[in-house]
Amino acid sequence: MSVLSNRYASKEMREIWSPESKIKAERRLWIDVMRFQAEALNIPTEAIAKYEAALEKIDLASIDEREKKSRHDVKARIDEFNALAGHEYIHLGMTSRDLTENIEAAQILSALKLIQERTASLLFRIGEKAEIYKALPIVGRSHNVPAQLTTLGKKFATIAEELLFAFDRLNNLVERYPLRGFKGPVGTSQDMRDLLRSSGEIEREIAKSLGFNRILDSTGQVYPRSFDFDVVSALAQLAAAPANLATSIRLMAGLELVSEGFAPNQVGSSAMPHKMNSRSCERINGLAVVLRGYLSMISEVSGEQWNEGDISDSVVRRVAISDAFFALDAILETTLTVLNEFGIFEANIRREIEEQLPFLATTKILMAAVKAGAGRESAHEALKELSTKALIAKREGKAQSLLDAIAADSRIPLDKSVLEELVGNPIEFIGDATSQTERVVARIGAAIKPFPGALTYRPGAIR
Questions:
Q1: What pLDDT does residue 269 have?
Q2: Boundaries of domain holding 384
Q3: List of long-range contacts for 420-428, beta carbons under 8 Å, 24+ apart
Q4: How far apart are the first and last CA of the chain?
Q5: CB 3.0–4.6 Å: which of 171, 192, 224, 236 could bond 199 by disulfide?
Q6: What is the pLDDT of residue 133?
Q7: E-only strand ranges, 275-359
């Protein structure tokens, strides 16, 4: 298994992609096909029972030795299962891709459904934070400098809306994701037709057992790898909102406004005892980079297929698809942990607002000056001149009062009492932030309704 699997991914995601789970799934598929073929091909009931009895007897070392001799992974697994059962009734009318691509599709679908559940849980937790902090003013930044007031809840709502957009795509992908079916070496289903006269009925039965609503009508030996790109790009899109949240938390934590949490025995640095860095958020950002790397890999094999199929993409897919799921799974688990342990330093938030409010109020003062008869551009020029001068003085540690300077400037037709009233209540500076947040929270409730487990899910422990 990969480092992503061993160190970061959840037990449930590891189980979907484990070698043992894949082999069991392949063996169940072989058995289901045998049952369907039994009457037409005179496959004895006793033989099927022998295969069923050997279903969970998985010896990875033995299979590996067989593959070293045959240099063919599927042939090695065929020979192993036949040897355990003492018969040769599996894989009739099938090519390797009839086995591997159907099972890989089933793994992908199972992993997508797990991601659905985890994403619904993350939406719920982000929505909780948005609701809690929907009316808490905080300094908003553009170009990473103070711009206007917003609310902490709106910051969470903005992340949630981005995630809702990706969640819609994920739900659509789960609904339309297809099974390849039994198409044979070049996609014509000739071998299965030779055995059963038709491949349609067996395809429908297997698709139903594996949980698929759709089956491809026309594909070659391998299904189009652009389908893999669709999957991995959907995962990368889902990762964007948690990565943006992690970045925001890191920046706010650097200003001592919030914290991702710090466990009692946690160590921030082996050298600097005082450090309480946002290491989990850093992990989220790093995993997002890894995931986008896998998307780049998958993009390279999308649109590069030879005729009805080749295996030049095999090693890429073997690494990139499962690891992409491990990376996103880890991102979701880590983000849920961050939200569970998230905290704020309200005194510091208020202190920053008090320090920055006269500067943040310049847009409000500009509107008030225009309403009082000033020309917009001349008022804007005056406020720019006065505020930048005061800001430079502040940075140099010199005494300054921006409101006094504005009140004394004839270009701004507002006296000191009016200016003080304008900046007197920070809640008056947040615009529609609260109502915007409430609308997003309502949408979250509707989106996660089909996933009741989202409300109670708790992430596993992270390292």
A1: 47
A2: 362-422
A3: 422/361, 422/364, 422/365, 422/368, 423/357, 423/358, 423/361, 423/364, 426/137, 426/149, 426/353, 426/357, 427/135, 427/137
A4: 18
A5: 192
A6: 97
A7: 343-344
